[in-house]
Specification:
The structure is a homodimer of 368-residue chains. Chain A has 368 residues and is α/β, with parallel strands linked by helices. The first copy, chain A, has helices spanning 24-31, 35-43, 50-63, 69-76, 92-107, 121-132, 147-153, 176-190, 205-218, 235-247, 258-271, 288-292, 304-320; strands at 12-13, 20-21, 81-86, 111-116, 137-141, 158-162, 170-174, 194-198, 224-228, 252-255, 280-285, 298-301, 328-331, 334-336. Chain A binds a DNA duplex (16 and 16 nucleotides) through α2 and α4.
Chain lengths: 368, 368
DNA sequence: ATGAAAGCGCTAACAC
DNA sequence: GTGTTAGCGCTTTCAT
C-alpha cells in the first residue's frame, strides 16, 4: 500500500474502536517527506534540517503518532525494555528495590517487565526465559537458581544479579556481612553475651553473608551464639522463632530480616515479654514497617531503592559496552538504633555455656 | 537471505556474545518445512500433522528457538502485554493488587509492564501514553486523572480501572462504602457516639466512597462525626492525625487506610494514650502490616490480590470481545475485628455536640 | 539533508 | 497439511 501524496491519509484500522493508529508513512506523506525522514526525526533529530524537523513533529503531534517500539526493535535489535524478577512482590524488601529500579529505568526511557517468581526456582527460570526474547536484559533479585542455571541464562540474555554472586555476571551486593558485624558490635557494647541468630532461607546468598559476618565478628570473643532456623523470611515464622529464642534463654536476637523480627516482637508482646527489657531484638533491611513497629525496631538498614537503581545502571552500562567486563557494586549497610535494644537485665551476668543444647536446632556453619 | 536447504544453518548474530539467535527460518530449513509451518506449530499446533509438529518442536528445542513476540505483534496487532499503573509501589495496598494481577496475567500467558506514577497525574498520563503502543491494554489503579483525561486515554488503548468509575470504562470497584458502614456499626455497637474520620486524598474515589458510606450509616442517628483531613495516605500523616483526633476528643477514629491508622497507633503509643482503652482505632484495607501491629488493628478488609486478578480478567475479556459493553465488577469489604477497638471508657457518657468547632478542619461533603 | 529500497521475524491469505 | 507470497512499522545502507 503506497500512499499517493494527495494529502488524503490512509491509516491502518485500529483493532479497538475503529480509530486510526497512524504509522510512520501516514506522517511522512502528510508532511511531504519520506518515511526515512520521519524515522530520523524521532531517532536522530540532529540529522534532519530544523525546518523539516518541526514540520514532521507538528504532523506527528496532530496525528497522535508515536513510533512503535516493537517495529523498531525488529530492526535495531534493542527493545528498550528491562526485565525485573523478584521472589515475592508481597515482601516490602523487594517492593523498595522495585520502586527504585522502575524509577531509574524510566529516567533512561526504558520500560520494565515485572515478574514474581514466588520463591520458586523452576518458575523463576521459566520467567526469565520467557522474558529474554522481549527485553534487552534482566535483573534477578535474590535469585534462587543454581550457579549452573544462571550461567545458562546468561547466554539467553544480559543478566544483572542483586544479592547474588556468580562468575562473569554483574551484580549489586548489599553488605550483609558488614551490617551483621555492626549489629553484633552494638549488642556486645550493650553487654549482651548470649545472642540468638534467626537464620533465613537456605540457599540465600544474603543469609550466607549474614552468617559469615556473624562468624567474623564473634571469632575469638567469649560469646555464646545460638543459631536457630532456617526460617521463612515472613512475619509468621518470626512468631514461631520468638518462642524458640525465649527457650534458648538468649538476651538478644538478630533476625535474618525485619519481617521475621516483627513477628518476634509481636509474639513477645502477646506473651507479655518486654522488649527491650527482657530481650533485645535487631532486624535487618530497614523496611518502612520497621520504624512503625512498637517498640521501634533497631535494624540494619540497607539502601534498597538505591540498589534497584544501581542494578539498572549496571545493566544499562553493560548494554552500552557489551565488550567491557562485568562489575560488582557493593552497597554499605548501616545499623539504625531504635527502641528495641537495650542492655540486658542484670548486666553482664547472663547465662553462659558453650555446648549445643537440644532446643537449639543449630544449623551447620558451612558454605552450601 | 533465502537459505538453501543444504542443512547448513545461517543465523543472525546476536548482539550480546556472538551466539546465534535463531529465527523462524532457521528452524524451518533445519526441519525441512516452510516458515509458515513453524509458525503454525507454535501458534496453532492443531493445524499441523502430529509427526511434523514433533519434528519442528524438536528442532526448535535443539536450537533454543522461541518466537519473537515483537515480530508477532507486528502482524497480529496483539502484543500479549498488559500495562499496570499504580500511584505508589511503596504502598502495600498496591503491592498486593500488583501481586494478584501479575499472577493472573502469567496464567493467561501475558507479560506485565509496570509503572509507578508517584501519585502524579501528569506522570501517570505520560506513562499510560508511552505504554499504549506496546500493550494490549492497561489497568490503572486509583487513577488520579480527570474524567476527561481518562476518556482521552480510552482512545489510545483498552482501559480497565481499579477503584475509579468512569462512563464507558470497565472497572473493578472495592466496596468502600459498605466497608465503612460496617466499621461505624461496629463502633456504635460498642457504645461510641463521637467518632473521628481521618480523610484520605482529595480526588480519590475510594475516599469519596468511604465518606458516602459514613453519611449513609450515620444519617438519622444521634452521632457526632468529626471529619479531619485530608491526609496523605501515609504513616507519617497518621502520626499527625492522631494529635488532631485526641484534641477533637473523639472516643474512636476510622482512618482512610491502614497506613494512616498505623501512624495513629504509633503516635498514641508514644504519647502514652492507650488503645483501645482510651481511643479505639479502625483502619481500612487490611494490608499485611495491620495484623502485625500492636495492638492488632481492627480494619476493613478488602480483597486486594483478588481485585488485581479480576482487573486482569476484565481486561482480557474486553480484549477477547471488543464489541461487548463494559463491565463493573464490585468486590465486597469485610470488617476484621482485632484488638484496637473496645467500648469507650465510661460507656455512653461521652461528650456531645453538633456544631463544627475550629479544630475540626471539616472538609465539605460534596461530590468533587 | 533527504529519498529509495531492502529487510528485521513473523503471520495471514491464498494456492496446491 | 503445507508452501508461497505479501506485508506489519520501522531502520538503515546507499544514492542523490
Amino acid at each position: 500500500m503506497t500512499v499517493s501524496a494527495t494529502g488524503f491519509i490512509l491509516c491502518g484500522m485500529d483493532r479497538r474502536n475503529g480509530n486510526p493508529t497512524p504509522s510512520i508513512r501516514d506522517v511522512a506523506s502528510r508532511a511531504n517527506v519520506s518515511p526515512a525522514t520521519v524515522s530520523r526525526a524521532f531517532a536522530e533529530p540532529g540529522l534532519v534540517r530544523a525546518e523539516t524537523l518541526q514540520r514532521v513533529l507538528a504532523v506527528a503531534e496532530e496525528l497522535h503518532y508515536r513510533p512503535s517500539r516493537a517495529a523498531r526493535s525488529l530492526t535495531t535489535g534493542k527493545t528498550g525494555n528491562i526485565g525485573l524478577v523478584v521472589p515475592d512482590l508481597g515482601n516490602p524488601f523487594f517492593s523498595a528495590i522495585l520502586k527504585g529500579g522502575q524509577a531509574r529505568a524510566r529516567e533512561a526511557d526504558h520500560a520494565v517487565f515485572l515478574a514474581d517468581s514466588e520463591e520458586n526456582p523452576r518458575l523463576e527460570l521459566e520467567l526469565v526465559r520467557a522474558m529474554a526474547r522481549q527485553v534487552d536484559g534482566v535483573i534477578i533479585c535474590s535469585s534462587r537458581l543454581s550457579e549452573a542455571q544462571l550461567q545458562q541464562l546468561r547466554r539467553d540474555t544480559t543478566l544483572v544479579l542483586l544479592n547474588r554472586r556468580v562468575r562473569g555476571v554483574s551484580a549489586v551486593l548489599l553488605d550483609s556481612a558488614g551490617g551483621m558485624r555492626q549489629a553484633i558490635k552494638h549488642l556486645v557494647a550493650l553487654g549482651h553475651n548470649r545472642i540468638g541468630f534467626l537464620g533465613g532461607p537456605d540457599g540465600s546468598w544474603s543469609n550466607r553473608e549474614r552468617r559469615r559476618g556473624l562468624r567474623l565478628e564473634t571469632r575469638g570473643k567469649s560469646l555464646d551464639i545460638v543459631e536457630l532456623g532456617p526460617f521463612a523470611p515472613h512475619f509468621e515464622a518470626g512468631q514461631h522463632a520468638a518462642d524458640l529464642a525465649v527457650a534458648a534463654e538468649v538476651t538478644a536476637v538478630v533476625a535474618f530480616n525485619d519481617l521475621l523480627a516483627l513477628g518476634v516482637l509481636s509474639r513477645l508482646a502477646d506473651r507479655g515479654i518486654g522488649v527491650p527489657d527482657e530481650i533485645s531484638v535487631v532486624g535487618f533491611d530497614d523496611i518502612p514497617m520497621a520504624g512503625m513497629a512498637t517498640p521501634h525496631l533497631t535494624t540494619v538498614a540497607l539502601p534498597l531503592e538505591q540498589s534497584g537503581r544501581v542494578a539498572i545502571e549496571l545493566l544499562l552500562e553493560q548494554l552500552a559496552h557489551p565488550g567491557s567486563g562485568t562489575h560488582e557494586q557493593g552497597l554499605p549497610a548501616q545499623l539504625i538504633v531504635r527502641a528495641s535494644t537495650a542492655p540486658p537485665r542484670g548486666g553482664r551476668s547472663g547465662l553462659r555455656g558453650t555446648r549445643t543444647e537440644p532446643w537449639q536446632e543449630t544449623t551447620a556453619i558451612a558454605e552450601r
